[in-house]
Amino acid sequence: MASGVNFIDTADYYGEDVTNRLIAEALCPYADDLVICTKVGGARRPDKSWIPFNTPENLRTSIENNLRTLRQEQIQLVHFRVMPGADVPFAESMGAMYEMQREGKILHVGISNVNPEELTAALQMGDVASVENMYGYAQRTTLNDGHGETRGGEVLPLCEQHGIPFVPFFSLVHGLPNGGNKLAELARQRGVMEAQLNIAWLLHKSPLLLPIPGTSSLVHLRENLAAADIQLSAEDMAYLG
Fold it and tell me: Which residues are catalytically annotated?
């Protein structure tokens, strides 16, 4: 927090509440300017595979669990994550989210893992505070991340049209080619890591992009934070494409 970080992305299915509990132990009572974003709509089997958890009853259970483990009376931002194989209509799940918003359990409702049609449908039902999809330098078009097709590159223009913040996940994970690519070459020239340049590219790509790179150590945290200081010119962005 002292370094200027004021947005934390979590979920109760990260390590069976472990992440939420660690956040609460470290930061509760929370600073007024800190936004904690959690996700609902999916669950994990013992073998770590994903299943939909998106009935109105399941969503309410997830919200109550997040409130308890985060030690909050209201969650500032909740993303409903669309999972493949769900047999509950999208509109029914979103209706449950907006109902809990009216009850005061959720301040802002967002969506995740969505395609343009789902974002458009959600906007017809209520406000969409943010969208969280897979997106990064190496993945800007339709991709399958194991949860379903996220179509980040197709959703971002729609978010820009409506002024909706876009939270890219897995932005550093999927397949930067080793050697001979523009990102690696520019990173070498600038004396920075490829992952740092990837984050910088996101920050320069659109003012609505809010990167959430995973951080597993203090060293990793400092590396990620340093990416915000990397300045890319219009020529740099044109070179990277």
Answer: 14
Residue 41 gets the label, from left (phi > 0), alpha (psi -120 to 50) or beta, of: left
Q: What angle do CA 152, 157, 158 make, to 5 degrees?
A: 95
Do β-strands 50-52 and 42-44 pair in parallel, antiparallel, or remain unpaired?
Answer: antiparallel
Cα-to-chain-centroid distance, residue 26: 21
Q: Is omega for the bond preceding 29 within 30 degrees of 0, making it cis? A: yes
Q: What is the DSSP string of 63-98?
A: HHHHHHHHT-SSEEEEEEEP-TT--S-HHHHHHHHH
Which domains does the chain possess? 7-176+209-215 (3.20.20.100)
Torsion of CA 178, 181, 185, 186, to 10 degrees: -120
Helix (H, G, I), strand (E, B) or coil at 50: strand
Q: Which residues contact 210 (CB under 8 A, 6 or more apart)?
A: 7, 130, 165, 166, 167, 168
Q: pLDDT tens digits for the chain (241 residues)? A: 777 889 999 988 777 789 999 999 999 999 999 999 999 999 888 888 888 999 999 999 999 999 999 999 999 999 999 998 888 999 999 999 999 999 999 999 999 999 999 999 999 999 999 999 988 888 765 444 444 555 567 899 999 999 999 999 888 765 555 444 888 899 999 999 999 999 999 999 999 999 998 887 888 889 999 999 999 999 999 999 8
